[in-house]
Amino acid sequence: MLPLAPPRDLTLPEPGSTTARDVLSRAVGRCMRELRPLLRAHIASAPEDVAAVDAVLARVPPGAVASILRRPHSSALVRTLRTIRPGEGDALLTELLATLAFDLQTMGAIAEPIPLRRLPPRIVSLVAREVVHLPARAIERPFHVIERETLLSLADNNPLSMFEAHPDKQGNAIDLGGHPVEEWTNVLREALSLVADHLPGLREEMALYVQSIVPVGHDAEKHLSASYREAIGTVYMTLHPRLLTMAEALVHEFSHNKLNALLELDDVLDNGFSSRVRSPVRPDLRPVQGVLLAVHAFVPVARLYEKMLEAGDPRAQGSAGRFAEVIRINREGMQVLEESARPTVIGQGLMDELVRWDRHFAGRG
Prior knowledge:
It contains eleven helices and ten strands. By secondary structure, it is α+β, with helices and mostly antiparallel strands.
């Protein structure tokens, strides 16, 4: 594979763009390259089980492994385990080994089950769209199709889901907020359709990335959403009565997923975490990378509002003020980045794109 080039259109795709697909493919490729060495680094915790899974991984088709690791229920375990010293992640290792064994069998990549000495309390699988509770092997099907491979997930195994950076939120426990599954799926489907109407290229990228939308409550006054660098493909969302707010949140969190995939490949900023600066959307000082994440996510939100208003879409009625607010947020964020960010070669491509869009929105709203 050729070296990664500085991306020109990772924020908003140009016609026929393959940038987002290429970035995701490379991020999955990193997981694949790390997987077996990572298991062997932790082998002392479960020598027989690691050896059994490692031997199978050595002979199964790479495409099968890539298909599993494209999904966040497995790749989030890999990315989290990479940050844990050998001997300190036994439960996580046990879950990862069982998940890989289960998914490989579900996909038909292996003829016989992999014998494992240790089993986790449950296996969450987006491949099978099931949760298997062990040792009884009771099966639960808590995944509901929204569109294509995007599911409303009433089960989540992200090890970091309860670690919350937002000051107004305490983790991401699954919660339908008293509303039925059908309402959630219908609203999310309609919000995705709205994006498709005005940003069809971005909608196709969302279909590639976003596989699991986890409900975390209902709030009629504000909307809180989240995503995690380790769990590329998962979005946490509250239900809100305003459709455009839901569409905005989907675009925003998907954009975080896309930039998180790039961060699997490059630091993007040399001072991403070493410098703390003012944020246009948070009261606390934030790492420069946090401001970059915000601007990168709000640019496509601004473009969505712009396209809807230009088209006279009745669903955008009353949103001119929000459009102007998002443009202001982006302008303030870009000022911070231009003053403080030190991009890598790859990051400079992203910064150049953000500058172009900042100029595009100048004087609008």
